[in-house]
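Re: the request from the purification team.
They wanted to know what the chain is likely to look like in 3D before they choose a buffer screen. I agreed to run a prediction and write the result into the notebook, where they can find it.
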Amino acid sequence: MGRRSILVATGWVATAAIATVIGLGAIRLVGESLTGTPGGVRSEAEIERALASPEPVPTGTTGTASAGPGTTGPAPSASSGARRGFATDGGTAVAECGVGGVRLVSWAPAQGYRVRDVDRGPDDDVEVTFQGATRGYELKVRCIGSEPVAVADD
């Protein structure tokens, strides 16, 4: 191998290294919008703190149900009546009872589902519909006493 070939190979490797460093710097500069999740990656402790906070998710664990909604125990709220989480295979929702009736505090579709329709209230009843590729789940909630309860659709 001649001296000229070694210089060409060294120049090519140096150019590739410089281009890689510039590319990585540009990605870091642009940030998470290209390569990560908005808000960054959260630690397990941060997730536990967020789940334990009263807004927008109640404390406790969420039950699941294969055919209908499952419920968790209510978490009291300072501003209104009881708050309760509900889960279907299509997604989860949190509802609370208050002076104006029941209202949906939050809702989130399960993986592979999207929210098709939401009636968040406050009203006599509220509902959220989760739609998947082959099946949809509708969650309808009313207040019975001062507790949100999942009910069958009329």
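For the purification team: Helices lie at 3-30, 32-35, 44-52.
Please add any questions underneath this entry.
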